[in-house]
Amino acid sequence: MRDIETNRWTGIEGAALIAGAAGVVLQQPSLLLVAGVGVAYTAYAWLSDAPDPRLDVERTLSETTPDTEEEVRVTVTVTNAGTTLTDLRLIDGVPPALEVTDGSARLGTALRPGKSATFSYSVEAVRGEHVWEPLRAVVRSPSAEREHSETVASTEETTLRCAPSLEATSDLPLRGLTTQYTGRVATDVAGDGLEFYSTREYRRGDPLNRIDWNRRARTGEMATLEFREERAATVVLVVDARRESYVAGEAGGQNAVERSVDAATRAFSSLLDSGDRVGVTALSPRECWLAPATGADHRTRARELFAANPALAPTPSDEPYYPIVALRRLRRRLPSDAQVLFFSPLADDLAVTAARRLDAYGHLVTVVSPDPTTGDTTGHRLARVERRNRLARLRRAGLRVVDWGERPLATELARAGRRWSR
Amino acid sequence: MRTRSLVAGVGVAAVLGGLAALAGFVVPGLSATFVFVTIVGIVAGVQGLRYALGRRNVDYRSTDTGDPELRYRVPTPGDDVDRRLVGAGGWRRTGASNLRTRIREVAIESLVLHDNCSPEAAEEHVEAGTWTDDPVAARYLGADVPLSWVTRLSLVVRGESSTPARVSRTVAAVEAIHDGDDSVTERRRERGRDSAADTVGEGRP
Q: What is the pLDDT of residues A79-114, one digit of tens each?
């Protein structure tokens, strides 16, 4: 709540006094009359006060759980439960991650006691849980000399919840660290599988269909064929959601954390579909941990996490973050056979350190990096060069890096997959 | 505070006296002579002028409501550099030297990662200015590369002698390390060797 003077009538008392003085000195009664008008205006400005508004706010959404990019109509009805408000300005508290696409989230009106005013606008839904902030009401006195501003919460909290659809992307090229379960990651272990790997001496009990009959016919020796075992992997998706990672190439566009989470949801789906155990966590001051698992329940839990976990929110948190402690904690939590898919714009050196450290502890790391840099100004160009150096540093250290620019993630993954299989 | 209440008391007494005189009571020391009324008028005029002139230093004020209908704006990497270049006009010493160190490190790292230099060799290249063809960029990172007076003059005339312009050229030179297919330092070294051979050749009788 705040009261301010708008200074619209400052100096009116001076005008009244000058007119009065001129009337007295020049002995002109008409000028004295003008001074009287000035005094009346001064009193009008000084004595009228901005009323304390008592408002009831009701906000309704056309859809409370929309899909991403769906338009949601917001209707706000404000009822005056107090005195007459001659000059009322209303500004709705649209959540920071949402943008108004149609209509206006503001209204200027006058309201008599008991009357209501309604305004509506549309927002485009983006992933996450978005809570409306209180509406701001600015009331002015009739003369507009005094202004009173306060926030009014709606009768019920308005929440828009937008869960990602968990669409799968093309197959993610995983690295060779696997579990003992059958899956799709080709390993360097001889056993059951599809791709020929080696032959070995026949041992009693080997199945007939695995015996190398050609060799037997040629040399008379018994040998057994072995195939490359295909196993499932345990993958933990780590989203870099530190404050430094909330960067974007264009103002108002998707920021790097939103793109990272988008990529993580797709990766989650496609990995789960191929039988891998997938977990989710974030480098963020807020808690976020979903232990690797499989199954339909796990999918539901992940969808919930991607939609509503504050660590993955589209706007950064102001809480302090201690990267060294957080990394140590993450390392303790990671299963020893877990690979890491690290989603980060690599906007600072700490992201590189985190990736390299995880890789050094034996969790083979693949970095998927949405590119937030542009080349329009000197500073942006310098930051782009710095980021390219970070990518190069990671590649030198033996990590796999997908530099995700403007093209769809599937395209970039396919390109990277070709490069890695060479 | 005491003077204010004193002045307010005098004011209230004067108003009451005036009202009493208006109602027909005889107030000692108050007579509506021409001189007295004129003096009161002039005092009121001066005071009125003071109030009216006070308006000149006053701005309209209103509640800042922000832009809740826009999305939360996040920065673009490199905004800090741009702010520093624009805000300080490129003249603040500490900011400029920090930026220079940062670009120098980026240049050295770029040479190491993209030009197959060892860190020591990269540092030597930057020190000697042999990492780029652009003398302005080389000089900005501290190399003692000759720059003719004609070039300097043309830079000043074209307005490219300011720090932001020099930083821009230096960043462009670092970008060239990334973009170039062949090694920048190797090429320059070869060219340096050729030109040295030419000079020797010309020097012979």
A: 999 999 999 999 999 998 899 999 999 999 999 999
Q: Is A138 on the interface with B (CB under 8 A)?
A: yes
Q: How many angstroms separate the CA of residue B163 from the nearest CA in chain A?
A: 11
Q: Which domains does chain A have, with CATH numbers?
A: 2-47 (no CATH), 55-162 (2.60.40.740), 186-231 (no CATH), 234-421 (3.40.50)
Task: Enumerate the residues of chain B whose CB falls inside 8 A of the CB of residue A379.
Answer: 78-85
Provide the ipTM.
0.74
Gap between the Cα atoms of B90 and B96, Å rounded? 7
pLDDT digits (tens, 9 = 90+) for A367-385: 999 999 998 899 999 999 9
A4 near B65, Cβ under 8 Å? Answer: no
Strand ranges in A218-276 using DSSP code E only, listed in sequence order: 223-231, 234-240
User: In angstroms, rounded to a whole number, what is the distance separating the alpha carbons of residues B151 and A395?
Assistant: 41
Higher pLDDT, A422 or A118: A118
For residue A228, the cross-strand partners are: A190
Query: Could you state, in order of their start, the residue ranges of all structural domains in chain B?
Result: 80-196
Sheet with A146-152: list strands edge to edge. A2-5, A146-152, A133-140, A85-93, A106-111
Q: Which residues does chain A have within 8 Å of residue B47's beta carbon, measured at their own beta carbons?
A: 14, 17
Residue with tokens 């980026």: B106
A 62-101 residues inside an 8 A Cβ radius of B: 89, 91-94, 96-100
Q: Are A234 and A339 in contact (CB under 8 A)?
A: yes
Question: Which of B40, B69, B108 to probe the A interface (max A CBs under 10 A)?
Answer: B69
pLDDT tens for residues A163-193?
887 776 666 777 766 666 666 666 767 777 7
N- to C-terminal Cα separation, chain B? 98
- State how far the Cα of A200 lies from the Cα of A185, in Å rounded to an integer: 23
